[in-house]
Amino acid sequence: MTQRQVTAGIDIGGTNTVFGLVDEAGEILHADFVQTKDFPNPQDLIGVVAEKILAALGNNLELLGAGIGAPNGNFYNGTIEFAPNLKWNGIIPVASLFGAKLKCKSILTNDANAAAIGEMVFGAARGMKNFLFVTLGTGLGCGIIVNGELLYGHDGFAGELGHVIVFANGRPCGCSRKGCLETYCSATGIVTTYISFFKENTFSEQIIDAKFIYEKALQGEEEAINAFNYTGEILGLALANSVAYTSPEAIFLFGGLALAKDFIFKPTRESFENNLLNIYKNKIQILPSQLKENSAAILGASSLVWKNLKKNN
Amino acid sequence: MTQRQVTAGIDIGGTNTVFGLVDEAGEILHADFVQTKDFPNPQDLIGVVAEKILAALGNNLELLGAGIGAPNGNFYNGTIEFAPNLKWNGIIPVASLFGAKLKCKSILTNDANAAAIGEMVFGAARGMKNFLFVTLGTGLGCGIIVNGELLYGHDGFAGELGHVIVFANGRPCGCSRKGCLETYCSATGIVTTYISFFKENTFSEQIIDAKFIYEKALQGEEEAINAFNYTGEILGLALANSVAYTSPEAIFLFGGLALAKDFIFKPTRESFENNLLNIYKNKIQILPSQLKENSAAILGASSLVWKNLKKNN
Lengths: 313, 313
Fold this sequence. Notes:
The structure is a homodimer.
Chain A: E1 4-12, E2 16-22, E3 28-35, H1 42-57, E4 61-70, E5 73-74, E6 79-81, E7 91-92, H2 94-102, E8 106-110, H3 111-122, E9 131-136, E10 140-146, E11 149-150, H4 187-196, H5 210-218, H6 222-246, E12 250-254, H7 262-275, E13 285-288, H8 293-312
Parallel strand pairs in A: 1-4, 4-8, 9-12, 12-13
Antiparallel strand pairs in A: 1-2, 2-3, 5-6, 6-7, 9-10, 10-11
Helix pairs in contact in A: 1-2, 3-8, 4-6, 5-6, 6-7
């Protein structure tokens, strides 16, 4: 009997580590997760996840490789380096540890880069050679595709769009600087904006998140709509500036904020076109990602291997 | 007798079109120029320049190809498109016209891109794979090298760093928008800054340019020194933001402003380091270009062909 070929997609997040087996068409044949915080030692997590992956393969599936997405993932070294959202210290050679346990090629990159490749292999960017992929979650992540390849730069850390400073002395950022784009344009940033529109903070007992603000906007609440407009205006300008660097064909938005559809896309596109240099006007689309929230992490990570296999054929 | 192999470097500028023959080591064997404005019809200019190049070849030199640098040059199409500083209208197929006259391969790109490749082939970026090359002349031009190749993007117009908006509603720019980086950080931008430091504009009869301000700074004039500091502060922040996109190994500064040495490099480097994200700190050098002002245009344009020949070997 011929074995069906799959790759493993592993996404290491601050809360959960999700993983699964994915075939060439992007079908997820198996998915599972562990809680990252249960593993103070990264080697233990890698051991347990690898065991579960090997068990899921059974006799029917052939593992061609493992792709790993992780915060502060360094593609060149296959390491996670000083990730602020993980409890692990220092530099961890995650790719080689997984490779040894799974006995296959392992590729690691940061989570936004993995999602960008996922969009290219399985999503709306199929056939595109130059695009930007922007995740609007807790922070703002970004993967830049140039000539069909991820832009890694000299040290593997290119594409930190979330930490472009948009206002000198602006909002304090987790990176210890001020005015970074992600303090305004992210699921967290819009909450700050929204709350600032109220004279008194009466929300102390409610959970305010991007979804809450989206629902208020649907109800027609002015502050909620204005929070999206303000966020879109800043995001549109930042994306227009991004175009001047890499001249992409399209920009994909993914994550919590992108789920607010026109509330965020309309002001973003308006500000984007208004701020674009003439030579770029009316030719770059800002589109929603076609990766689904719940499968994007596994698909993105697994696509690292599928992309690599296709390149070598 | 064996012929010595050369490539032609042709730089089409608003005032002059300079051209020359360059050997593999970067030696300019012949150089000449015509005044661009003498040729209302671009085909006439191309005819005259090609004739002069063919005459200079004589029997001793073998022409391997022609590289052309030009404002608004489009690499993908080999065209000059709607260049505001040239009198020629519309889209002109300059590369194919030169190719037909010179009977050789012709490659065209914009002038800053050509200079970036010149730095990589003949200058201080030899051996580097990821760097930014910034020209601080009348405007601010930029060539971005990623993985040893110029970043062109989807339409060939990547690298327009001069038109990143640094202040919403800032200084009016020639591109019809406001607050573009080049309105602050260029030989023209620093003049605006310098004059703004004086309550009364008593300079109407003097020519104020970057060189004038440099000389005043050398004499210890506070306004001149402050003009460099102000320019460097904005440039340093903009370059720190650039790093977040492409994560380069080094950034080279070229052109009128860069000649002011420490007056511009010191405040630029200071602001750059202060504004860099932690992961990039203390590892990216800001360096003066090693291309000489008077030969850079020819070397840059000719390097397009030398780079191409090396890639194909």
